[in-house]
Specification:
single chain; 125 residues; mainly alpha; 5 helices; 70% helix; globular; disordered C terminus; transit peptide; Succinate dehydrogenase assembly factor 3
Length: 125
């Protein structure tokens, strides 16, 4: 069972990094770094936390796969990657997760400025 668990984790990790190739450059760099940190941080969690962690990342991977497919099919309209966090989901976060979310938001904002990415654009370049 543990070997199956490890192979499932590795496969999901690889799949997410592959899916990130569909993201704009700045988002890919930010996403890759975040995924690496999160997977590293959760190496030694208990079984219940590991299942919840994997389930959330599998949901993310599926959402990203769908958005990447939409992006490939729509050559003119810019795809919006990600999904808004609901208040219910935010209320489930621990203080540490809220802190991580704030750091991620600050990094994402900094990346947008660094790479001069405009979210206002209706069309892809």
């Amino acid at each position: 069972q543990p070997a199956l668990h490890v192979s499932r984790v590795r496969a999901l990790y690889r799949r997410i990094l592959l899916l990130h190739r569909a993201l704009p450059v700045a988002l890919k760099a930010l996403g890759d770094e975040y995924v690496k940190e999160e997977f590293r941080r959760h190496r030694s969690v208990g079984p219940a936390d590991a299942q919840r962690f994997l389930r959330e990342w599998e949901i993310y991977a599926e959402m990203l796969r769908q958005q990447a497919n939409e992006d490939r099919q729509n050559s003119r309209i810019k795809t919006c990657f990600g999904t808004p966090l609901t208040e219910e989901k935010l209320n489930d976060f621990h203080n540490e997760q809220i802190g991580q979310l704030l750091e991620l938001m600050q990094e994402a904002t900094k990346s947008n400025k660094q790479f001069n990415i405009s979210d206002d654009s209706e069309y892809k370049n």
